[in-house]
Amino acid sequence: MLELKLKPDLIECGTDEAGRGCLAGPVTAAAIILPDDFSNDILNDSKQLSEAKRKILRPLLEDCSITYGVTHIYMEEIDTINILNASILGMQKSIEQLTPQPEHISVDGNKFKPYHNIPHTCVIKGDGKYMNIAAASVLAKTYRDEFMEKIHEEFPMYNWKKNKGYPTTEHREAIRKYGITKYHRKSFRLLPEQLTLEFK
């Protein structure tokens, strides 16, 4: 069972992102404040949960949260400011959507930038330790998966419905065969040998 939050006496949000290592699609971040009496036996780091469990959890988390926010940072911005800055920007934009604003921010991972003088703590593997970070990881993952399933319809040959934009062998083969799309991150090493790619 995960602990609810890092600072029990403060209004605290958890924040996390999904899709950092993908070759295509946005990086998606979420932030959430859970009530102090929240408990759930299934909730865990989204990577440890099946897709079915994540889909069950999302509406439940949205309904019982005090407040939550979700943000996509798209490919052009990732290519301009780099993936780490894009991830942090996504988390900050998600926190911006919260009412009330938190008194403390728990961040999954080891990098963050100060946000409006609100104290923050970076927690490595925090999505497996605290419910508010785990909840943010579930929201970020489900919203991003939904986006990838939608753009799959436009470019089915990359099978984003299944690989969600991650660098699977199948995804790289499709890039080799069909070139890249407007959804690919051009600053990423899209193929191991990174040939000049045709833009579609």
From TrEMBL:
<dbReference type="GO" id="GO:0003723">
    <property type="term" value="F:RNA binding"/>
</dbReference>
<keyword id="KW-0540">Nuclease</keyword>
<dbReference type="GO" id="GO:0043137">
    <property type="term" value="P:DNA replication, removal of RNA primer"/>
</dbReference>
<keyword id="KW-0963">Cytoplasm</keyword>
<dbReference type="Pfam" id="PF01351">
    <property type="entry name" value="RNase_HII"/>
</dbReference>
<dbReference type="InterPro" id="IPR012337">
    <property type="entry name" value="RNaseH-like_sf"/>
</dbReference>
<dbReference type="GO" id="GO:0030145">
    <property type="term" value="F:manganese ion binding"/>
</dbReference>
<keyword id="KW-0255">Endonuclease</keyword>
<feature type="domain" description="RNase H type-2">
    <location>
        <begin position="10"/>
        <end position="200"/>
    </location>
</feature>
<dbReference type="InterPro" id="IPR036397">
    <property type="entry name" value="RNaseH_sf"/>
</dbReference>
<keyword id="KW-0479">Metal-binding</keyword>
<keyword id="KW-0464">Manganese</keyword>
<dbReference type="InterPro" id="IPR022898">
    <property type="entry name" value="RNase_HII"/>
</dbReference>
<feature type="binding site">
    <location>
        <position position="108"/>
    </location>
    <ligand>
        <name>a divalent metal cation</name>
    </ligand>
</feature>
<keyword id="KW-0378">Hydrolase</keyword>
<feature type="binding site">
    <location>
        <position position="16"/>
    </location>
    <ligand>
        <name>a divalent metal cation</name>
    </ligand>
</feature>
<comment type="function">
    <text>Endonuclease that specifically degrades the RNA of RNA-DNA hybrids.</text>
</comment>
<feature type="binding site">
    <location>
        <position position="17"/>
    </location>
    <ligand>
        <name>a divalent metal cation</name>
    </ligand>
</feature>
<dbReference type="GO" id="GO:0006298">
    <property type="term" value="P:mismatch repair"/>
</dbReference>
<protein>
    <recommendedName>
        <fullName>Ribonuclease HII</fullName>
        <ecNumber>3.1.26.4</ecNumber>
    </recommendedName>
</protein>
<dbReference type="GO" id="GO:0005737">
    <property type="term" value="C:cytoplasm"/>
</dbReference>
<dbReference type="GO" id="GO:0032299">
    <property type="term" value="C:ribonuclease H2 complex"/>
</dbReference>
<dbReference type="InterPro" id="IPR001352">
    <property type="entry name" value="RNase_HII/HIII"/>
</dbReference>
<dbReference type="GO" id="GO:0004523">
    <property type="term" value="F:RNA-DNA hybrid ribonuclease activity"/>
</dbReference>
<comment type="similarity">
    <text>Belongs to the RNase HII family.</text>
</comment>
<dbReference type="InterPro" id="IPR024567">
    <property type="entry name" value="RNase_HII/HIII_dom"/>
</dbReference>
